[in-house]
Structures are given as C-alpha cells and as structure tokens.
Amino acid sequence: MVPSRRFFATGLSAAALSVATPSGRARAQTSPVLRVLTVASDPGALPFYAQENGFFSRAALNVEVSTMGNGAAIMAAVAGDAAEVGNANAGTIAAGVLSGLPFTIIADGGLYQSKNPNTLMCVVPNSPIRGPKDFAGKKIALNGLRIVAHAAVAAWLDKNGTDSKSVGFIEMPFSTMLPLLESGRIDAAFIGEPVLSTVRARVRIIGAPNDMIAPEFSYASYMTRGDWVAKNRDLAGRFSAVLRQTAQWANANPQQAGRILAKYMKIDESVISTMARVQYAASVQVSHLQPSIDIMARYGFITKRIDANTLVTRV
User: Fold this and answer.
1) 223-238, pLDDT tens digit by residue?
2) CA distances from 291 to 148, 159, 213, 216, 294 (A)
3) How far is Cα 212 from Cα 149, in angstroms, rounded to an integer?
4) Do 11 and 108 belong to one domain?
5) Which of 155, 243, 253, 273 is most buried, by the most CB atoms less than 10 A from its CB?
6) Do 25 and 151 share a domain, yes or no?
7) CATH number of domain containing 223
C-alpha cells in the first residue's frame, strides 16, 4: 500500500516525540530558527558538517539539526510542521506527493555509486547460496520494506534467475542482521555501512543490488513543504547554497568529515576509516532522483511514475 496522508499524519505524533535533541547550539540569532531533520548516517551528514564548520552561521542561518531513524518518520515531521527541512529518498518523497502532501526538494545529499558500493548482499561463509539464482524460498533481511532498497533487491533477483515473489523479505535494523544470519533464521542480509565494515570478516559478499537502480543515484535529498518555500524563499536559498558548499568541502576533505561523522554517528573513527564512504551531490540533478522513483513505481511501491522535475524547487 502506498503511504497515505493518514499514514504520515498518524506517524506525526510519534515522529515529533522521537526527534533527538538538536546536535548543536543554534546560531545566527537574527534569523528565524530553521529546524532540519536528518538520519545519523554518511549520506545524511551534510548538516553535521555545515554546523561543525560554521557554514550555517556564516550564511546568517539559525539552524537546529536533529536526527531521526528514517525518511518516513522525517517526512511525517515535516508534513506536520515539526521541522522545516528533512532528509529522505526521492522515491519516498514521491510517495508523499502522490498521497497529496506538498513536498518539494531543495537540496541533495549523499550519492550511491556502483564503483564504491556501501550496501551489499551478505551470506555466511558456508552458505550454499552463491548468487541471486539461488534464492527461491529463502529469507532476506532488509532495513525497510516497500522502500527503494527493497525494490533494488527484487530487481536483482528477477534479473538473475529468481522470481522475487518467491522470496521472503524481513525488515530489521542493520545492527541485528548478523546474529540472525549466523543462527540460520535468515538466509541473507542486505547490509549497509557502518555495520557492513564491522561484519565483513564474518560474511561472504555475493552482490550489490543497488546497481539495479542506477550506477549513480541520490540516497536522500533535502525536502520541505512547497508552502514553506513560497513564504521563505531567501531562507531556503541560503540553506541550499550552504549544503552545496558543504558537499564540495566534504568531498575534498574526507578525513576531516570522517571525524565529524564519527562524532554524530557515535562510532569509533577507526570504523569510519574502513567504510565505503559516499560522495555528495554539489547540486540537485534530476538524473540522480529519477532512478529511485522509477524502480519504486516498477514494483508498485508507489502508485505511478512521476517526473522528478516536478519534485524540485530551484532556490
């Protein structure tokens, strides 16, 4: 079922309650507070970098950055005015728009790149599964159902000899996948960073299903409500400009960015140094957004394909 307006409204109260304490002091007190929600992850880290480097305050932006667990919860918060800007995948944003919510994308974040995949299909070393053709009747763990990762795995199976409808998909956090994999309760797990780096010695990698989406696509973009942009175009423009600046800084300074990322993800810097790190989009490109929308439409996770151009507001 496609997420409905009721879905986002129902999730709103829980979402608002679960918003973490802002990750730093608000600055530039002459500007209205801009509440930004993101996921504590490499793809969602641009606001952390901007805050730590003082980029927001230099742009006279009074930003409070908080974290939530996933894009759907973030979208619920933005829809209900618990935040002005949130981080979510283009396919999930499209689901909200198709359900009647006025979301629009004003900036982009981390990119998936097939040359440096950071979410991979894993099995235990002695598993009889050698590739996607061996999955009929098996159970695969994902970090979410009816999201772009689910569609990617389904497409990977369908293209390579297994009907995805013959496979069981189970939702769980990355952090709980390895114990269930080793106990035999699941047959494979689609594991992402930073957990992937910590379990590599105990699993065997058999594929990169995200390649089925595109060689390069946006993991998560920064969205807001269209009515908010209409009333705050200058504020939205300055925020977008800061994220573009921050993307360039992070791409050029991965070690410094890694230290900040370790702080906000609450993991050791040694783990960051082993991770497959993302590159960040310096601007919003429709070619980065459309693939997630297309594959979710193909698998019926959204009601229809929409043009990514209609989701973007240039500010």
Assistant:
1) 999 999 999 999 999 9
2) 9, 17, 6, 9, 5
3) 10
4) yes
5) 243
6) no
7) 3.40.190.10
